[in-house]
Design a protein that fits this description.
By secondary structure, the protein is α+β, with helices and mostly antiparallel strands. The protein contains 7 helices and 23 strands. This is Fibronectin type III domain protein.
């Protein structure tokens, strides 16, 4: 089956987009399934789409968690309706089990205090099993001072950045390697020649010529498992329980932030920004004296024309949008008695963060982290009727677990004082 042309740059961009590849693959699967069913005169059932609005909350009974989610309707295929669900469980850093079947979009699980449990859900029917949901984690502390809600707002996957002008064309893997879905072996190296006047020349002077530094490497992307990394750092403090949810449940209102002592909003390398629905929920939470940790590489881009969004950042989160670092610059970050380097380039360990945000304190906040090159603000904290701690880089991009534990302990300690 021929789908795309390697001589068409727009086709090549689509070929690197994970969402496009999923859509095409599902379309081909449906076509083959329907053809075979028609040829043999039998009925068919299309496998379901992945579930959404996944959330974990503390159960009504002691040492239990309540899991809930919403099935996704395939508006193009009525047979793709979910008939049941499989909930897979992981304890600590182990592997996932073989799953527990449930007919309803909810499940209550018993847990042992002190252990981190992770869950992901698939939808099933006669046609098969869907792709899994994001992975959410939870832990009951043995002596808990309260509960932290981790909100996963990092669901971005994307192909690499591109250049397409009258003079230059190509993929800018160095400055923006994109966010693969899981991992990808798709790249051989960084493109070195972007000259559109040199097509078809098969040496270093030709359009598209690249190096080989990425050959044989599985470039890391979005694992959809970052609540676990945040949760392990919370667990290490020994003071808090934690649960987690998708940001979709905040937008829909099915998760109430005000029920939690601390809210940890992780945006990772997502570029979608803080939506109006989430801004409203966070404002309500802060107005009731909440403690808010929020981290992400693109919380500040200096280009937003959203006046309400800028006002929210300045008046509620207490930082001013000062734009992003130049690509691959300001790699080293210092603060809270630690110093570490952010993963600016594509690698096999964690998703790349080629740029991150400059944060300027406003309204009584103060700097907590700086980029050591130039001492520009990389994090702020605010103490007033409520408290915020904002990081202009993803918390999970702090490379060493011990450093993440130290930073999380300091942040939770700031919320307690």
């Amino acid at each position: 089956m021929e789908l795309l042309s390697h001589q068409n740059f727009n086709d090549l961009k689509l070929g690197h987009e994970p969402a496009f590849k999923f859509t095409v693959a599902r379309s081909v699967y449906k076509s083959v399934l329907k053809y075979l069913a028609d040829m043999h005169g039998t009925s068919y059932t299309v496998q379901p789409l992945p579930v959404t609005h996944f959330a974990i909350s503390e159960g009504k009974k002691k040492n239990t968690f309540d899991l809930r989610w919403i099935p996704t309707e395939d508006v193009l295929e009525p047979t793709a309706e979910a008939q049941g669900y499989i909930v897979y469980t992981r304890v600590g850093r182990g592997g996932f089990d073989n799953g527990t079947y449930t007919r309803k979009p909810e499940l209550t699980v018993e847990v042992e205090p002190g252990l981190v449990y992770s869950f992901r859900v698939t939808a099933v029917n006669r046609g098969g099993e869907s792709f899994p949901s994001e992975t959410l984690s939870a832990c009951k502390a043995k002596r808990s001072k309260g509960t932290v809600l981790i909100v996963n707002a990092f669901d971005r996957v994307s192909g690499p950045g591109s250049i397409n002008s009258p003079l230059m064309q190509g993929f800018d893997l160095l400055n923006d390697p994109g966010i693969p879905d899981g991992q990808t072996p798709a790249y051989c190296g960084y493109q070195q020649n972007f000259d559109r006047s040199r097509p078809g020349i098969e040496d270093e002077t030709g359009l598209g010529y690249s190096g080989n530094e990425l050959e044989g490497k599985l470039i890391a992307g979005n694992t959809f498992d970052y609540p676990f990394i945040h949760g392990k750092a919370i667990q290490a403090t020994g003071r808090y329980s934690f649960v987690s949810c998708s940001d979709e449940t905040i937008k829909s209102g099915s998760t109430d932030l005000t029920a939690y002592n601390v809210v940890d909003f992780l945006y990772g390398a997502d570029r979608k920004g803080i939506s109006p629905e989430i801004r409203e929920a966070l404002t309500r939470y802060c107005n009731q004296g909440g403690n808010l940790l929020i981290s992400g590489a693109y919380l500040s881009d200096g280009k937003s024309k959203d006046a309400e969004g800028k006002a929210f950042c300045q008046n509620v989160l207490k930082y001013a949008d000062q734009g992003l670092t130049a690509p691959l610059s300001c790699e080293e970050v210092s603060g809270l008695n630690v110093r570490f380097r952010l993963p600016r380039r594509a690698n096999e360990t964690t998703y790349a963060v080629p740029q991150s945000g400059y944060l300027y304190p406003t309204g009584g906040s103060f700097s907590t982290f700086v980029y050591t090159s130039g001492n520009y603000g990389a994090g702020i904290a605010y103490r007033g009727n409520y408290r915020t701690f904002v990081l202009g880089f993803p918390f999970e991009s702090i490379p060493e677990e011990g450093e993440r534990n130290h930073v999380m302990k300091a942040i939770l300690g700031f919320f307690e004082k």
